[in-house]
Amino acid sequence: MENRLNYNSYGFRFKGDYQDKVAGLNAMGFELQQSQEYKWHGLNRGENDVFIFQYTTNGYGIIQIEDKTFNLEKGEAFFVKVPSNHCYYLPHNSNEWEFLYFTIYGDEVSRLFNIIVNTYGNIFKLPLHSKPIKHIIETLEKVDTIGINHGYDASSCAYAFIMKCLEYFEYGYQHSDDFPLSITKAINFIEKHYQEDISLDDIVKVSNLSKYHFTRQFKKSL
């Protein structure tokens, strides 16, 4: 993130059959939880037939899915359906859990969600620059600036997200190590220092390239 997002949460309620049949945007946000009272159980919620994607940006939390327990550290995400037998929470040995979340619904979302979890599971490790995470960040920035004002826009955002997930899981892993070393150094620097006021000059210095060659190579790679 070039500029740090503000903590905020958004819910959406738009009319339109296409949202139920294809994809709809239910809620999204960027949160910091520091209380051990933070706990959600997938069988004890009011929502029905929604799909929650949550990505850890700092600290860590825990999710239990059926009889398995997973620590969720920086760069790790879960994707679950509500209702289902899962529970995620801030454990007593964690001071904070900072995360992005994106909640969607719809018949086509359900079909594609099942493909993803049946093939790749419910837990993922993604870099901050991966397309699914960039889409969440960009959508939050859009909501902060101009908003999402009708169902078609919300549906488009929801469908684009799950397609970016499929694209990343099918192709992103294969190419994650194919970047030039200079770009890998820059990406690592950005991921470690995104909360600070870093500049292009700071990133270029890490890459050991001239600004011209760096920007050209960065655009070509990403």
Task: Describe the fold and architecture.
There is one protein chain. This protein has 222 residues and is of the alpha+beta class. The protein is built from 7 helices and 10 strands. Strand 5 and strand 6 (68-72) form a beta hairpin. Helix 3 packs antiparallel against helix 4 (151-175). The longest helix has 25 residues, at 151-175. The protein is globular and about 55 Å long. The model has no long low-confidence stretch (mean pLDDT 91).
Which features characterize this protein?
222 residues; alpha+beta; globular; 10 strands; six-stranded antiparallel sheet
Q: Shape, please?
A: globular
Radius of gyration of CA atoms, rounded to a whole number: 18 Å
Structural class: alpha+beta
Order of helices and strands: EHEEEEEEEEHEHHHHH
Widest beta sheet: strand line-up: 1-2-9-4-7-10
Tell how many strands the DSSP assignment holds: 10
User: How helix-rich are the residues, as a percent range?
Assistant: 40-55%
β-strand percent reads 25-35%
Largest sheet report: 6 strands, antiparallel
What oligomeric state best describes the polypeptide chains here?
Answer: single chain
Separation of the first and last Cα atoms: 15 Å
Number of helices: 7
Mean pLDDT, to the nearest integer, reads: 91
Low-pLDDT residue intervals, each spanning 5 or more residues: none
